[in-house]
Amino acid sequence: MPYIKTYIHFVWSTKNRVPFLDNKELRQKVWRHIKENGDKKGIYIDFVNGYSDHCHCLVSLGADQTIQKTMQLIKGESSFWINQSKLCLNKFEWQDEYFAVSVSESILDKVRNYIKNQEEHHSQHTFAEEYNEFITKYKFQKE
């Protein structure tokens, strides 16, 4: 039986960065659902939070889980659930793209704290500013 401990910090936005998740109560409902759905699908979601136009998710990947498949399951099911539950006035969609970076076990608490404090963080920085900081910091190139 393999022992795998690989943490990935995922970030993705709503389609065209529309602030669909425009109130804290709605966001909490969506984050709770994402965590519960992950549990049902065998995806260990360590921490999830976000803001009106995006989501952060810290996931520990299992031996047979890929980044692509994990994102497909989380994003696809949650957008379906949001629409089915009529939580938004307009059709809800996540953007196709996402950000994913591995996280060292030594900084897990720092990443959890960062994800936890999204409300406060985004009172000072937009998602676009945050995303550009990530891209610059990690020097990502599109495939």
From TrEMBL:
It comes from the Bacteria. InterPro entries: Transposase_17, Transposase_17_sf. Residues 3-118 form the Transposase IS200-like domain. GO terms for molecular function: DNA binding; transposase activity. GO terms for biological process: DNA transposition. It holds the Pfam family Y1_Tnp. PANTHER family: TRANSPOSASE FOR INSERTION SEQUENCE ELEMENT IS200. NCBIfam families: transpos_IS200 (NF033573). This is Transposase. It comes from Flavobacterium faecale.
